[in-house]
């Protein structure tokens, strides 16, 4: 996980926000794909790919925050 330490947190935050909200009109893909997943309509490969691509930066952000938290605890 040292590769994650090399990525600045601000870069991941900006990427996560942009990918979660893109496209801004009429509705963000992430919201649309999560709704489709909940309703059971997420069956097309392109829709699954969209969900993965738009949620990947959020997953990276969570991993980075967990990593930073673990490093802060180790320093105490």
What does this molecule look like?
The protein is an all-alpha fold and 76 residues long. It has one domain (17-71). The chain is 78% helix and 0% strand. The protein has four helices and no strands. Helix 2 (9-21) runs antiparallel to helix 4. The radius of gyration is 15 Å and the shape is elongated.
Number of domains: 1
Approximately how much helix is present in the residues? over 70%
The overall strand count is: 0
State the end-to-end CA separation.
21 Å
Tally the helices: what do you get? Answer: 4
Provide a brief overview of the structure:
The protein has 76 residues and is mostly helical.
What structural keywords apply?
4 helices; single chain; mainly alpha; 76 residues; elongated
Please give the structural blueprint:
Elements: H1 2-5, H2 9-21, H3 29-39, H4 45-75
Helix pairs in contact: 2-4, 3-4
């Amino acid at each position: 996980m040292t590769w994650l330490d090399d990525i600045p947190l601000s870069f991941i935050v900006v990427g996560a926000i942009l990918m979660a909200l893109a496209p801004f009109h009429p509705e963000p893909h992430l919201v649309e794909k999560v709704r489709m997943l909940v309703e059971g309509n997420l069956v097309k490969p392109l829709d699954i790919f969209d969900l993965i691509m738009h949620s990947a930066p959020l997953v990276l952000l969570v991993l980075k925050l967990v990593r930073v938290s673990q490093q802060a605890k180790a320093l105490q």
